[in-house]
Backbone:
């Protein structure tokens, strides 16, 4: 296969490396902004004695699923560890929410 054939094949597949990096970085910023927003709302809700565990559970499951997906694709153990910890946070938060906390 010559250089032009390889280039044509890559263009047909539509796998643009820069686009994939931008998408990955955007997901990181999505996580960061979601965690910050949920933290602020949880603090406000806690100060007013409203339950806040639903926000914690929502953020935790989102981060857990995202990191588990990254683990499946990249096999980095740090992603698996974060996914497991965040899934545990999700489970505990869901239990506390159902108990009325």
Residues:
């Amino acid at each position: 296969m010559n250089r032009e054939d390889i280039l044509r094949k890559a263009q047909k597949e539509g796998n643009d490396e820069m686009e994939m990096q931008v998408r990955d970085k955007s997901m990181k910023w999505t996580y960061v902004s979601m965690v910050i927003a949920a933290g602020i709302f949880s603090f406000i809700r806690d100060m007013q004695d409203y339950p806040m565990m639903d926000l914690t559970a929502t953020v935790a499951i989102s981060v857990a699923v995202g990191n588990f997906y990254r683990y499946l694709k990249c096999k980095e153990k740090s992603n698996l560890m974060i996914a497991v910890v965040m899934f545990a946070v999700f489970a505990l938060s869901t239990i506390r929410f159902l108990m009325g906390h």
